[in-house]
Specification:
This protein is mainly β. It has 1 helix and 27 strands. It folds into 2 domains: about 130 residues, Jelly Rolls (Sandwich); about 140 residues, no CATH class.
């Protein structure tokens, strides 16, 4: 259920628990939508702040510990609007904070810290002459697997952890999101191949694209080592192989408002995703690299 919130022109944060590493929200304000990423439900050190549409709706910044200078800054004239909702996402993972617009993969603001800060709460507020209406997606995630889970398998720097039934092992790689819920990179045996796909934890199973359809599988392996997404294929992570032995890679695309993980088959020149019961192909995509 969405968090619906009105914030006054007070610069006083309203905090919500969120330790998933991702938040998606929509905001209607003239300027200065402020978001705090904090270890506690309060303004503490260390913590981060993201200002969207600050300085008269002319630029956006990332700030650490409420001090200047800003650690990241980008001109964003007119990014907010007092008469319509504008959507954004913020991701914090591997000490990197990224800020992007709704339905856009590349962030418009990003910064990597030397310090590993354990973010447990987000806070929102408005100020500097602006009030705001917020629609904040609730945090979602999957259960932590029980002790005695099978040992992970490794390939180069990748770590594939066996799991089932919607389980999300610790340190799993979230390659996308769907309605605010993290979507994890997985692979599963299907059709005689080892096929990369996606895991939506609340569904209790993974999905792989194969044979023109979206195929569910209750058992899978989750990518569990740090990795990053890029728009070019150097050092692409080999995640599986087709039934003919062709290497398959992990790709992702934005479709129908969701950032969805799938497979890249080089001989086909596209990324396939499992979505809405179908296997969909996209010629433009991001590919996971080591």
């Amino acid at each position: 259920m969405l968090h619906k919130l009105q914030t006054e022109d007070k610069l006083e944060y309203n905090f919500f628990p969120n330790s998933t590493g991702f938040v998606q929200f929509r905001i209607k304000a003239a300027n200065d939508a402020h978001i705090a990423l904090s270890p506690a439900a309060a303004e503490v050190d260390p913590m981060y702040e993201v200002y969207i549409g600050g300085w008269g709706n002319s630029k956006s910044i990332i700030r650490k510990n409420r001090t200047k200078p800003e650690v990241a800054e980008e001109p964003t004239p007119g990014i907010l609007n007092p008469n319509e909702f504008r959507g954004f996402w913020i991701r914090w993972q591997n000490r990197t904070i990224s800020v992007g617009r709704e339905n856009e993969i590349p962030p418009f603001l990003s910064w990597t810290d030397y310090e590993d800060v354990n973010i447990e709460y987000i806070g929102v507020c408005t100020g500097w002459g602006a009030s705001g209406s917020w629609l904040i997606e609730p945090p979602r995630g999957g259960p932590v697997p029980s002790p005695g889970q099978p040992r992970p398998t490794r390939s180069a720097s990748a770590c594939w952890v066996p799991a089932s039934g919607g389980q999300v092992p610790p340190s799993s790689f979230a390659g996308g999101e769907d309605n605010g819920e993290p979507v994890y990179v997985v692979r599963a045996q299907f059709g005689g191949g080892l096929i990369p796909g996606k895991l939506v934890p609340s569904h209790g199973q993974c999905y792989v694209p194969w044979g023109g359809t979206e195929n569910p599988s209750p058992e899978y392996e989750v990518l569990g080592s740090p990795a990053r997404a890029a728009t070019s294929p150097p050092n692409a992570l080999t995640a599986g192989q087709s039934e003919d032995g062709e290497p398959l890679y992990i790709g992702r695309v934005v479709h129908d408002g969701a950032l969805t993980v799938g497979k890249v088959q080089p001989s086909h020149g596209v990324c396939y995703i499992p979505y809405g019961g179908q296997e969909l192909s996209f010629p433009d995509y991001e590919i996971l690299v080591q």
